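@channel anyone free to eyeball this complex?
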Amino acid sequence: MTIANGLETWTSITSVAATAVAGDILTAGAMRRIGDLDEIRAKSGLTGAIKAVVGSPMFLLGVCSMALSFFTLLFTLSVVDVSLAAPASAAMTYIGSAFAAKIFLHENVDRRRWFAAIFVCIGVFLLSR
Amino acid sequence: MKHTLTPQRYLILLAVMLTASVGDTLLSHGMTQVGPVALHHLGLLLVALKNPWVISGIALLIGFFASYLTALSWADLTFVLPSTAFSYVIVALLSRYWLHETISIYRWLGIALIVCGVGFVANGPSLTEHPTEQPTNRPVPAVALSAEERS
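replying in thread with the prediction:
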């Protein structure tokens, strides 16, 4: 079904992964700033926890990125085979998130986590076969 | 300090895996009952919202997002993401043992790799420790040092 050329195919797949990574990083960053939701819920109840999350501009930006990623995926699926687009974008998202989490969230991505990201990435690719 | 998870927090990670996989499966089952949605018949999506399978799928996916956000509030993204990938494994196992679909050797290999990947991070610390104060050149009082640092 693929009707896009090689460059268009990989540009659209990379766009899906890039927007998904941006969504994950912004959401994770927002949750880190907000703090432990279990503690907030214990203090202010479920409503207080929901208010704390929804009131964070960073979280809302993350949700917008996730929505953009979803619509980019829909567009990509209209021009690229699902058997390539879905696993390739998912695999790129796992590796991209590990890099971005190290750079932007200063997470300690040690050898164990790199192995996990690479194993999951290859595993997702094999599941689509 | 090594951050390890309490049983309650492991349950939240389990909820992340289960709600994502079962929610997607229910949504997929519901949409096959509704039928294909063409661009010029988007109103059919509103009809889909009356389907009990679709409603249950959406409810579970809302549950997934809530548990995913809760997990991100006390664990690193690189710790939580492999757990979400575990939902692929659950979907594959559900399709094998519930829907009796055939799973190729490649898929079994993929499942094994994802299980190994999740196992790698599950044994490690869940959260990166970030210092809250900038280090200064002033001498640190002995009382501020932990027993481990003093020894």
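from a first look: The helical segments of chain A are 6-34, 37-54, 57-79, 82-104, 111-127.
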